[in-house]
Amino acid sequence: MAEKVVRGKIISSDGKVLAQTLTENGSEIRDYPYGRMFAHVVGYNDKGKSGLESVCNFDLENWTELNTSKNSLLLNRATQGLYPPGSTFKVVTALEYMREHKNTYKNFKYHCTGYTTVGTLKIHCYGGEAHGTVNLEQAIEKSCNCAFVHMSEEINKGKLASLAGDLMYNSKVPINLLANSSRFVLDKKSGTNEMAHTSIGQGQTLITPLENAMVMSAIANDGVVMQPYLVENVKNIDGGVIKETKASKLSEPLEASECETLKKMLRKVVTKGTGTRAYSSHYNVYGKTGSAEYNSAKDSHAWFIGCAERGGKKIVVSVLVEGGDSGGRVAAPIADKVFHAFLD
């Protein structure tokens, strides 16, 4: 590895060199063949401290540190980071329970004492909180682990795995970026312990923030999963559109009626449950918090996935704070700031 990284060329779309590094008598000189013509764009005025020079060049003398850091500094966490979904997965568990108990899910009831035992596991609700008697809507609102573990005993493992597959678990999200596939290993042969852990987003289930956003997008779009993209359009200097990305549908794994029911439940999360820090009186918000344990010390990542809409405008967010602990206390306020920036 060289001790010093030399800045490369900036080349226009038609192949012309707009900026380059020349070596004269052992010294490096930044050369701009067109002088001031493209000054602001390439950074000519400030010798590379503005324009594309500033955006696209940076000090790489600490490349080894960047490339080998235990903090994975070069990892795009949105598309490559794999995290347990924690309680955000309860949206999927609830949906599968509703599908398998279409005529009776509204009658679901469970009395939470703060912990429950299943198989060889003793599972606690967050902070050991006892939620008392809850129905399905309240179980989501309060994010009651015990209720969902009890619920999992009445869910077909193979069907839950199929629903997860429909929501693109174990499939690569088609986007023009490096991306990892989320992982879902539960199947019909899995044991009671694994099913209990999976129902609350723990165990071996892993998801990227991008895919968790797509799960929420499917609910917000009445069951339709859209193709993700980065650039909506490219305009010329006069504002004319010279290139445009057309929205396209990837799949439609959910029914509109299912999404409507889930939206009402997730609205309660924000108005009176674990996600109140994402609430706003200015627009309609619904979502799900998550605190996902990731080590034996029971440290947690903080999640919030949700949607805000007003007057035809709609935005979905997926917030993940590594080691943030509580989704409600840490991730939901971040989502709230994004919602405000977009809708206010």
Write up what this structure looks like.
There is one protein chain. Strand 2 and strand 3 form a beta hairpin. The protein is built from twelve helices and 14 strands. The chain has a three-stranded antiparallel β-sheet, with no helix packed on it. The protein has helices at residues 39-42, 51-56, 63-68, 77-80, 90-100, 136-142, 145-152, 157-166, 192-199, 209-220, 256-272, 327-343, and strands at 10-11, 17-24, 27-31, 110-112, 115-118, 121-124, 132-134, 225-226, 233-235, 241-244, 249-251, 284-293, 300-310, 313-321. It has 344 residues and is an alpha+beta fold.
- Give the strand tally: 14
Approximate shape: elongated
Question: What string, H for helix and E for strand, traces the elements in order?
Answer: EEEHHHHHEEEEHHHHHEEEEHEEEH
Give the % helix.
25-40%
Low-pLDDT stretches: none
> Structural class per helix/strand content?
alpha+beta
**How is the main sheet built?**
3 strands, antiparallel
Strand order of the largest sheet: 1-2-3
